[in-house]
């Protein structure tokens, strides 16, 4: 009996606690704004600013010309004369191939020339004698023609031997591979003693006194481009420096994969600060600046691909959907959704909801 009484008392206390909690929650739901204090916020105004008419693009640097260096024949490299990044002049040796076999071939070719020359000289003398005897009637025309044919065959052999000698001399000369242009060594893939195949790429010589900045332009923007247009180029490696170039090459055909047009901007590079492979930012001038509506960048929020700002109406925050454009300095272009002079909230935005009371502070 005593246990049952205690049990009933505990159950009664539990229900009392639940009732009090429910009452408090109900009271909070009935008066949601009773305890909500206005949130202090700063403001700014929608205003017109001057937007430069430029088209920002990303690009990469290429050498004005890039000469691929290879050997014309297979063999072993006996001496590498340059290193990556080294400046070279036109005609300067880059590497030397083993010439033992080449010089042996040259001697064989020279001996062949000597033999062919001697035979040709002998056949010429013989034809001369036959010609004299023919004129005296001691030889028939058939015998004379036979001698002539022999002489002409010897002459052909002599010419062939000279051609082979010239080729052998050229190969010996080309065993020392020289730079075809003034430039800088890049992508060297060569060491002393290495065996190389004819035609395989061993290094490149990049001409860097001027470079090409390569960009890809969409079809809709091609109307803004023409040869000789001035272009501004910047690179993260030199944040305080601006390079100026001109449109030098416009591809007449769009790429098959991205359907974009390849454009090359020529930039003078006397200090060789711009290196092939660098990523750069390009600003194409599209004409006179124009006036656009703008708000501070921090005033624009995004959620699930939708952009919006907060304004104020009757002392409460009001959420407005907007369409943002380009960044201009520390402000953001607004294409649609606001009008000039509209008050925009700029801080405590993460604490705001549509309809929350706000207390306006000073305009930023």
From TrEMBL:
User: What is the superkingdom listed in this entry's lineage?
Assistant: Bacteria
Q: Give every YknX-like C-terminal permuted SH3-like domain span.
A: 292-359
Q: Does the keyword Coiled coil apply?
A: yes
Segments forming a coiled coil: 151-178
One Gene Ontology cellular component? efflux pump complex
For this protein, the record's InterPro entries field holds: Beta-barrel_RND_2, BSH_CzcB-like, RND_pump_MFP, YknX-like_C
Key words, A-Z: Coiled coil
What region holds the CzcB-like barrel-sandwich hybrid domain?
A: 68-205
One MF annotation (Gene Ontology) recorded for this entry: efflux transmembrane transporter activity
Segments forming domain CusB-like beta-barrel: 212-285
So which residues are the signal peptide here?
Answer: none
Family, per the entry?
A: Belongs to the membrane fusion protein (MFP) (TC 8.A.1) family.
Question: This chain belongs to which protein, by name?
Answer: Efflux RND transporter periplasmic adaptor subunit
């Amino acid at each position: 009996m005593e246990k049952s009484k205690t049990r009933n008392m505990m159950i009664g206390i539990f229900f009392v606690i639940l009732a009090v909690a429910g009452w408090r929650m109900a009271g909070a739901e009935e008066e949601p704004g009773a305890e909500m204090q206005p949130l202090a916020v700063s403001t700014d105004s929608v205003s017109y600013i001057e937007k430069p008419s430029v088209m920002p693009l990303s690009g990469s640097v290429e050498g004005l010309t890039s000469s691929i260096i290879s050997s014309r024949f297979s063999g072993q490299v006996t001496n590498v004369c340059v290193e990556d990044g080294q400046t070279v002049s036109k005609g300067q040796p880059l590497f030397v191939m083993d010439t033992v076999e080449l010089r042996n071939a040259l001697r064989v070719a020279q001996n062949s020339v000597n033999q062919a020359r001697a035979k040709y000289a002998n056949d010429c003398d013989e034809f001369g004698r036959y010609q004299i005897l023919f004129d005296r009637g001691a030889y028939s025309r058939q015998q004379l023609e036979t001698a002539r044919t022999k002489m002409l065959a010897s002459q052909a052999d002599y010419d062939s031997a000279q051609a082979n000698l010239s080729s052998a001399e050229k190969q010996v000369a080309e065993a020392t591979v020289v730079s075809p242009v003034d430039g800088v060594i890049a992508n060297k893939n060569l060491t002393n003693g290495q065996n190389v195949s004819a035609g395989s790429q061993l290094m490149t010589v990049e001409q860097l006194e001027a470079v090409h900045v390569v960009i890809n332009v969409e079809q809709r923007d091609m109307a803004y481009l023409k040869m000789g247009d001035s272009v501004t180029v910047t690179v993260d490696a030199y944040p305080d420096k601006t390079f100026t170039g001109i449109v030098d090459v416009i591809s007449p055909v769009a790429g098959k994969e991205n359907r974009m047009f390849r454009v090359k901007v020529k930039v003078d590079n006397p200090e060789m600060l711009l290196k092939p492979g660098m990523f750069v930012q390009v600003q194409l001038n599209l004409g006179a600046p124009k006036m656009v509506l703008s708000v501070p960048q921090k005033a624009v929020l995004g959620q699930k691909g939708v952009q919006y700002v907060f304004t104020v109406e009757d002392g409460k925050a009001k959420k407005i959907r907007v369409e943002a454009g380009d960044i201009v300095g520390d402000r953001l272009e607004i294409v649609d959704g606001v009008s000039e002079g509209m008050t925009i909230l700029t801080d405590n935005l993460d604490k705001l909801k549509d309809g929350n009371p706000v207390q306006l502070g000073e305009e930023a």
